[in-house]
Design brief:
Helices cover 25% and strands 22% of the residues.
Length: 138
Amino acid sequence: MAAGPDAIWLCVRKTSAFLRKNKNMPVMNAEPGNLLGLNKQKYSGLSHKKAADVHVTINGKKENIIMTATSQRGASKRGGKNFFADTGVSKGGKTVKTLARLIRFRPDLASEATAKYNKVKRSLKKRKVAAKSRRAGK
């Protein structure tokens, strides 16, 4: 019999290898599947049955925004159970459909997921360098 999420959280909350503690800061967590990085059961990727995350992967020069959620499928023949399933999120107008899937999966994290997606998307934009005119100073 597998342990429930509450029992896993009691074991992991203070003794996880992913914890990041600093003075005058909340306890942060770097585990995979943790949406905000806070050390709370609501956001935990290890102890919550429906973990969800939005992050960036880099393939060569291309940067992709990936939505990760706990796999709902059973065991595969070769690799055992897939814990996380990744879905690419478009940087254009098709994002609403993929984010809607995440919102249906975890409705309590809807606002946090959309806010994180917007922050990640904004961080990937390149700054336009304004060319200075040589005649402007004369």
